[in-house]
Amino acid sequence: MSVNTTDLAALRAEIEELKQQRQELRQLNTYREVEAAGLKDELKEAKKDKAKVEQLSRVVDTMRVRELELKGEKQKIEADMRQLVEEKGRVDRENLEMTANLKATGNTHQTAIVELKKQVKKAEEKMDRLERNSRSKAGQNARISDLESEESDVPPFGKRKATSIVGLAKSASKKSKT
C-alpha cells in the first residue's frame, strides 16, 4: 500500500488548518468569557444604581410629605398668632373698660387691677411662646431650604450624598420637634 506524497502533504496541510481553526476558536471562546464577565459586572452596577435611585425616590417623597407637614404647622401657628392678637386686644379693651369704671365710680380696688395685670401677662406670655415657635419653625425651614439649594449645586454623582444629608437634616428636625 503506497501513500501518495501529495495526499500526505494535503492531509498535513489540512491538520495544520484544523489546528489553526481550533486555536482561533479557543481565542474566540476566551473573548466571549471576558465579555460575559464584563456584562455581569455591568448588570451588578445597574442593579446597584437602580436601588440607589429607588432610595432617592423614597427620600424625595419623604421630603415632600415633610414640606406639606411644615406648611400645615405654619398655617396653624399663624392662626394661633391671630387668635392671640385678638385675645390681647380683648383683654386691653376690658382693662380700659374696668379702669374707666373704676375711675367713674371712684373705686380703686387693687384686686381688679392685679387680676387685669395677670390676664395681660398670660396673654403676652402666650404670644411670646407662639412667636418663639414661629421663629424656630422658620429657622428649620431656612436650614432645609439651604440644604436643598446646596443639593441643586452638586454634580450628578455627588448628588446622592447631598440628598442623604438633606434627609438627615429633616429627620433631625423631626426628632427635635418631639
Quick summary:
The chain is mainly α and 178 residues long. The protein is 92% helix and 0% strand.
Description:
With 178 residues, the protein is mainly alpha-helical. It has one domain. The protein is 92% helix and 0% strand. The chain has three helices and no strands. Helix 1 packs antiparallel against helix 2. The longest helix has 101 residues. It is rod-shaped, with a radius of gyration of 41 Å. The N and C termini lie far apart (104 Å). The model has no long low-confidence stretch (mean pLDDT 80).
Which value, in Å, is the CA radius of gyration?
41 Å
What is the domain tally?
A: 1
What is the element string, with H for helices and E for strands?
Answer: HHH
- Gross geometry: rod-shaped
Largest sheet: none
Structural class: mainly alpha
Biased composition (Basic and acidic residues): 124-134
Region (Disordered): 124-178
